[in-house]
Amino acid sequence: MSGVGKNNASLEPHNTLKLQSQASTLVELNKHDQLDGVFEYAKDLNLSVVPLGEGSNVVLGEHIEALVLIVNTQGIKVLDTTDNAVYVDVAAGENWHDFVVHCVELGWHGLENLALIPGKVGAAPIQNIGAYGVEIAPLIERIYLAPLPGSELDVDPNLQEVLQRTDDGNLFIAAGDCQFAYRNSIFKKALRDKVLITSVLFKLGTRFKPVLTYPALRDYLSAQANGLQPDQASVSATDVMNAVISIRRTKLPDPAELPNAGSFFKNVVLDDEQFDVFVKRHPHAPYYAQPLAGIDQSIQYKIPAAWLIEQCGFKGIYDGNLGMHNQQALVMVNRAAGRTQGDAVIAFAERIQQTVAEWFGVRLEIEPRCYAC
Ligand code: FAD
Ligand code: EPU
Fold first, then answer.
1. Which domains occur in the chain, in start order?
2. Which end of the chain has fewer CB atoms surrounding its CB within 10 Å, N or C?
3. Is 263 a catalytic residue?
């Protein structure tokens, strides 16, 4: 292996909540061809491999007994173009927002509503990132993978049906087999902890069709046009991207200034029957009857978790160094970078979950992946 791992390495620079955490070993993967060497190294040390991008969707405990692999691989390759689409293969270590900007500049459309989401390309399919009326799922064609050491993919017959190989032997999964849903995918289920995403093949449009379904986005663009409703003729992809960037900057704390991991809980999804019970008890609760645009259409009613948390009195409230943000009650923030531990995060989260369950009869699900806490 070129480049040696760092033992007992601090993970504070590698998680946006800036939690105090240490990895048994830390390795930075800069080139794809270092991968076999890294995996051999992990096997020699008898450590599992935990991949990380920018650590913007994780809660890390005090000690992660693993080889933590920071994925930095770079490369954006156009594989094919048709009359109305371009197929682009993007290395897992590319910065997500920079890739979105690149696409808008080159007239590759579909991702503009997902601007300014922190993180790297390789993590984006894990929770099917979504914002402002768009999810990544329908824009993905396939995802290239490398089995993590010890994953034994070949012993699971269900996985055999969805994992495929290219003629030159590269392992991939087609988007249609990824079980994408709201903040969910096969990478959080059968493939959890089993694969490294090495690159993502996107199918992007070359004709711009704006998605203006999200009320806050429509209102923003309409206000900019003196009250006129925005439509395909009046807005460009750059307008949509810039609007999303502006809205996000007013609502969400910048992790570089106030450490956080974005939404700490998922919004609550209820089916018809559950919604009937909920709305009778809480007739003034906001809700959305439509899912975000995506492959899974089963979502019926989404209750904003931010509203539930705010109603329970947690907005702008701190418990020690952790608080729920005063502009967006769904975002947990840490005002003591490098001095807060994952256990405290989970304890605060449980307090919120318990209060919301008592008041509203629904359970909030933690969104970030928790390791060792
Ligand atoms: P990490 O946090 O490093 O990793 C997340 C998980 O993915 C971990 O389990 C990790 O092991 C796994 N993983 C990472 N890379 C790979 C890989 N190459 N192969 C296999 N597994 C891998 N999310 C949204 O969906 N919508 C939003 O609007 C949004 N806004 C946010 C705003 C802020 C301020 C913040 C801090 C976060 C926000 N997020 C949002 C969450 C987060 O940005 C996304 O989930 C993002 O995709 C995480 O990328 P990452 O590189 O930081 O992943
Ligand atoms: N609201 C409150 N109090 C608040 C904030 C919001 O009551 O402090 C209510 C309002 O009714 C508001 C509604 O919640 O209309 C929705 O708020 P917002 O538009 O800010 O979106 P969200 O549902 O809270 C989700 C995603 C975000 C994504 C935005 C935009 C989840 C868990 N979160 O937040 O994703 O950026 O929509 O699409 O689905 C993330 O995952 O980290 C993230 C930031």
1. 6-71 (3.30.43.10), 76-205 (3.30.465.10), 260-371 (3.90.78.10)
2. N
3. yes
